Each structure stands twice: as C-alpha cells, then as structure tokens.
C-alpha cells in the first residue's frame, strides 16, 4: 500500500468514527431559579436560568411549533411561549399564600436563557415555597438548583427529578 492510500484510508476511518459517535450537547440537565426579596420595592424578583437548547426543545415539544429564542423577528411569539411554559411549571407560595408571578421577559446570555418574573405587594417574607417543574417534562435526570434570598440571608437547595418542592424559612 502506498503512502497516499494509507492517508486516504486513515481519513475515511476517522470520518466514519466521528460520524458514528454521538456528541452530547452538554452532560448535565440543570436549571437554576433565584427568588430575591426586594424590601424597598416590596417584590420578589424571580430569575430562571435554563440552557437555551433544552428550553427551545421543550417549547417545541409542548407547543408543537418551531422555536428560536435568539431570532428578533420571533420575539413576541417566543415571549408568549416562554411565559406560558414558566407560569405552568413554576409555582411560588409566600407565607402559605399562592403568589402570582408576573412575567417580565427573557434574554439570551451565551448558552443560557435568563427569564425574569416578579411577585408584587410582598411587604415581608417569613417562608417561601417553590414548586419547580422546569424541564421535568423533557429529562428524567433534571437537576433544579433553587436559591431564595432575603437581605444577606441566602437559602439554597438542589432538587433531583422527580422532587419538585423547595422551602426556605427566615
């Protein structure tokens, strides 16, 4: 076998190996939710961070339409889908009272989508309960990291699928 044939066979083998080995998008299925008490504005500021590729996958799956969170022409449509999904997969209770999440919007930050919401008219906080089902309808190895912050006091917890409930008392 001459040198040219060896190079050709080597390239073909490498290409075949590369095609047959699936490449994972990312090894972890994780999202974070932060609930921050803003005493001055009397609100709870809620931020969710979700890998954009996973989030687009679940939005497409649940709502049976093409999603592209980074496309400016689709911003209004994507806002509606993001709002619908988050409001159905995240519930917050403040001092044993169901709270109403107000959707503010989302933005893309590299590979992550940040979603912003708030709960108004919160004068004080003693206990926050979070029922977080984000991406639980896509992955059975989903991890949800939850943070609840009141002033300098931060309570954090990790939920592993199928657990959905996190509580923080102050």
State the domain count: 1
- Summed over residues and divided by their number, the pLDDT gives a mean of 89
Structural category: alpha+beta
For the CA atoms, what is the radius of gyration? 21 Å
Residue windows where pLDDT falls under 50 for at least 5 positions: 19-24
Number of strands: 10
Characterize the biggest β-sheet: 6 strands, mixed
By DSSP (H or I, 4+ residues per run), the number of helices equals: 3
Strand order of the largest sheet: 5-6-2-1-8-9
The end-to-end distance, rounded to whole angstroms, is: 76 Å
> Helix proportion of residues, in percent?
25-40%
What gross morphology would you assign?
Answer: globular
Order of secondary-structure elements: HEEHHEEEEEEEE
Strand content: 35-45%
Organism: Pedobacter changchengzhani
Pfam families: DUF6702
Protein name: Peptidase E
Notes on the structure:
- This protein is α+β, with helices and mostly antiparallel strands.
- It has 3 helices and 10 strands; from the N terminus they run αββααββββββββ.
- The strands form 2 sheets. The protein has a 6-stranded mixed sheet with strand order 5-6-2-1-8-9. Strands 4-3-7-10 form a 4-stranded antiparallel sheet.
């Amino acid at each position: 076998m001459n040198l040219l044939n060896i190079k050709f066979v080597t390239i073909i083998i490498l290409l075949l190996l590369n095609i047959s080995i699936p490449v994972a998008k990312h090894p972890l299925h994780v999202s974070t939710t932060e609930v921050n008490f803003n005493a001055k504005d009397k609100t709870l500021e809620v931020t969710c961070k979700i890998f954009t590729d996973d989030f687009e996958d679940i939005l497409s799956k649940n709502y049976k339409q093409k999603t592209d969170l980074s496309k400016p022409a689709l911003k209004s449509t994507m806002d509606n889908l993001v709002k619908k999904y988050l409001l159905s997969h995240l519930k917050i209770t403040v001092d044993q009272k169901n709270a109403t999440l107000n959707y503010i919007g989302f933005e893309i930050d590299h590979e992550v989508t940040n979603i912003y919401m708030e709960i108004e008219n919160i004068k004080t906080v003693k206990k926050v309960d979070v029922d977080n089902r984000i991406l639980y309808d896509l992955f059975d190895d989903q991890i949800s990291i939850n943070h609840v912050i009141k002033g300098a006091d931060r309570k954090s917890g990790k939920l592993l699928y199928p657990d959905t409930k996190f509580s923080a008392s102050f």
